[in-house]
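Appendix B. Raw example, untouched.
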Amino acid sequence: MDPISVLSGDINSRDIVVRLNAVKRLSTIAVVLGPEGTRTKLIPFLIEFVNNSDDEVSQAIATELGSFIPFVGGPNFAHCILPPLETLAQAEETVVRDQAVESLVPIAEQLPAAEFDKYFIPLVAKLIDGDWFTSKISAASLIPLAYSKTNDVSARETLRKGFLNLCEDDSPLVRRAASSHFGRFVDVVEKEYVESLLLPAFLKLANDDQESVQLLVVPNCVAITAHLPAAFASKEILAKFKGCIASNSWRVRCVVADHFVDMCQVLGEAIVATEMTGLLSKILFKETEPEAEVRAAATRQLKNFVALLPATAVVDFAVPAVKTIGSDVSPHVRSALSSIVMGIVPLCGQVETNSKLLPILVNFLKDEIPEVRLNIISNIQELIEVIGAQEVSKAMAKPIIELGVDPQWRVRLATAERMPNFAEHLGVEQFDEHFTSMCITWLGDSVFSVREAAIECTKKLSKIFGNDWANKFVVPKLVELSTHTNSRHRLTPLFACKELCQVVGPAISSETLLPLVLQLATDPVPNVRFNVCKTLVELSSVIGNDSPQIQGDAKKALSTLEKDSDSDVKFFATEALTYVG
């Protein structure tokens, strides 16, 4: 049966599933027909079909055609695929247009130069001149690619004029599309046309009364500034940027905040130092910016902005800014600051951080919002590296201990994960004074993730402080947990022994950890018993399989567990016996 007839029957079915499956088989049909049959039969069929297909099927066809070049005979014949995609690029449904454009891009990139100028440039020109806004929207996204690939002078002039017309189109949707691809077009246009043609077009778009267009002014400020002389940038573009900061639309101001540092980077150090600190302040503080979303977005830019300031201006701007934002009534703003404030610490240096920033950071550890506390403790290593663990401990010991019992388990988890960093810098005496009790308590936490982090924490602490410390603090807690009424907590000594034995060595493993594990071999819960088997394997690898303890008590316990009534226990006991020999 003719493949096209089969396809026609399925693709016109009333059942959407049948129609979509038919589209997915297009590549198979193309293989059956061969390159010439695909070009002369399948593609013409699709050209006719896509004029009347529904949106879901049209999107699927656009997707399939994006990888159709091998089926039509390679790049030299890729132009055959353009007509159906051209039709789909004019579809009213956005997802169909977007998919058609997405598929046109790889095809255009693989077209030989002569074929590109002959077929793709006219396609883009037709989309530009289309009667309906949909074709113009697709044209806006394709013009930068077409311009970058063609070397034909006439074609480039057509594309320039076409893009400028789109920037002034009556439809806000078209102007928005042109504005969204303005930066890409600026990057490929010759420098001589940026100032003479694109700058006036940008200024018109910047004055557009549609918010959807205004939202794109700021990223376009960044894009065009990089291609303009400094005089134009500091006068024309900066004026529009300032206008966006003063916009009545909070969404526009939010976009300003998101792109503030990008704008600073293209303007240069001189303008940043003289102009930009004042501009950022307008959207950073509650006194001048009423919207918390804008202040939070601006706050997230603070670290990277401060890094661009001259060294002499860093402390003068950063410290008052952090102090003011730290007392903002919005939790979103304080959370944004807590996520970046530790990055400002190295820029301010040891002296200024110790005297001015540290009190603010201590208050953050007491903030009512868990996310703020979590952000500070998660990045506390940066503070330690600047002012030292001694100073951090001196100022923050009490707040950190409070974090150790925080109602939010993620805060306790983050605190547990940071304790070994303190230990490396504080020394055993000072650490024992403030933090050891808290670290040991985590082994009995109600949340498994915290208990797991506590095991890793005590393992690292035992490595730092030595076996005596582990024997004095960790082992007694494990013994206590081994008799806990909840089986989940009785598992903790087993998990801890598996990790701890790697650090404390064979002597303590055999004298202290092994008896603790063997004590749990008769536990009433199967889950505990089979974890005993797994733990004994780890202990035997440290103590030695041929040691009397392993060949004696351990092997005897495993032999008993091998006859256990639970199948999982028997399985792991057999495996363990095989390992210990």
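End of appendix B.
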